[in-house]
Design brief:
two-stranded antiparallel ribbon; 37% helix; 193 residues; alpha/beta
């Protein structure tokens, strides 16, 4: 709710792009079209932040916890004038929600290395996908999230360190499906999770 992606699409990309509803949009029957991206809403964003303990507003409009901890997130991106325009809009709009979005632009190789090592707070980053089927396993299977000692596993495409037994079961159902209907249903379940 705190990122005005639609404004970026409208102003920077002049409406040439559309926002995906979910991580695996564009795979026909394997995409759960009922999943929609959250709309930008300063009111809803502030409600969520309040539930996380950010209940006080500073003089600059940025939310804080009662102990003074500011609601601040660093968003990393590649060095590119187009990304600069995107990031500036996101930062201005996030401030309306009480979020101090700090922008960090870094070399492509450094960004890729940090993302793969799970050493970032947030990032504008994308992967290429190949039809005909989505493959949630590399991105969300728990076996790619943490080492046996509990530390984050670097070098995997599970860049969010997702670790969910129910999602792992849904991913296994995607792999075990024997009909297109079973595969589509399993992929929808994984996407919902």
């Amino acid at each position: 709710h705190a990122l005005n992606v639609q404004k970026v699409l409208d102003l920077v990309f002049r409406g040439d792009y559309t926002r995906m509803g979910s991580y695996f949009s564009g795979f026909g029957e394997y995409t759960d079209e009922t999943i929609k991206a959250l709309p930008f809403s300063p009111t809803k964003a502030r409600e969520c932040f309040a539930r996380a303990g950010y209940t006080e507003e500073g003089q600059d409009g940025i939310l804080c916890k009662p102990d003074g901890t500011r609601l601040q997130v660093v968003m990393s991106s590649r060095i590119d004038p187009l990304y600069t325009n995107c990031m500036n809009i996101l930062r201005e709009e996030a401030a309306r929600c009480g979020l101090d979005l700090r922008l960090e632009q870094i070399d492509d190789t450094v960004l890729y290395s940090r993302v793969k090592a799970k050493q970032y707070q947030s990032a504008i980053f994308s992967w290429g996908f190949s039809p005909p089927l989505p493959d949630p396993a590399p991105f969300f299977d728990s076996s790619y999230a943490f080492k046996p000692d509990g530390s984050p596993m670097s070098g995997t495409t599970n860049i969010t360190a997702t670790n969910s037994p129910s999602l792992d079961r849904a991913i296994m159902a995607c792999k075990a499906a024997t009909t297109e209907a079973e595969a589509a249903a399993a992929h929808h379940q994984a996407q919902q999770l």
